[in-house]
Design goal:
single chain; mainly beta; Immunoglobulin-like; four-stranded antiparallel beta sheet; 2 helices; YEATS_dom
Length: about 170
């Protein structure tokens, strides 16, 4: 069953829009400021592959933290889609992407492991060099709506196919 909103925008057949994304964490050791329960400050994020704003594609992101955190389900309603916290332990995040209404009505669930300590444990941890763990992926939207296609046609984070010149999509003039 289609929602009424979905029917108002025609779908472009045999067209795919690809959105390269990066999701991951960056963790900083707090050094002298560290306590037993808060040794690191970290940020988890979802962004364009070159740090572009994904707001035209993503409506909100839900980060599911470890249950030991206060309010472990965190909702970020607008870009930048990131969340910062302090803690001492490593754990796996569930990251749920919810798309703009004319993009896709299904959520996309990603998983990412927070790493606080560098691979080469060669002694003391540095406060100057963060631990960064990232994953690259591409979200592909087959047969996109005309409104989605028109909105992201010139967006730097979105890969949109070149349409033939005979293809007439009434785009709003800038």
């Amino acid at each position: 069953m289609h929602s009424p909103k979905e029917n108002t925008s025609k779908r472009l057949k045999d067209v795919e829009i690809s959105v390269p994304i990066v999701y991951g964490t960056i963790a900083f050791y707090l050094g002298r400021k560290a306590s037993e329960s808060q040794s690191h400050k970290w940020t988890v994020y979802v962004r364009g592959a070159k740090n572009e704003d994904l707001g035209p594609v993503i409506k909100r992101v839900i980060f599911q933290l470890h249950p030991s955190f206060n309010n472990p389900t965190r909702v970020v309603e607008s870009p930048p889609f990131e969340l910062s916290e302090c803690g001492w332990g490593e754990f796996e995040f569930a990251i749920s992407l919810f798309f703009q209404p004319d993009v896709c009505d299904k959520q996309l669930d990603l998983y990412h492991h927070l790493k606080l300590y560098p691979e080469d444990e060669s002694g003391l941890q540095s406060t100057k060099k963060p631990v960064v763990i990232e994953s690259y992926d591409e979200i592909v939207f087959p047969n996109p709506s005309e409104s989605f296609f028109a909105r992201v046609q010139t967006h730097p984070a979105v890969i949109v196919p070149q349409m033939p010149t005979c293809f007439n999509l009434s785009l709003p003039c800038n």
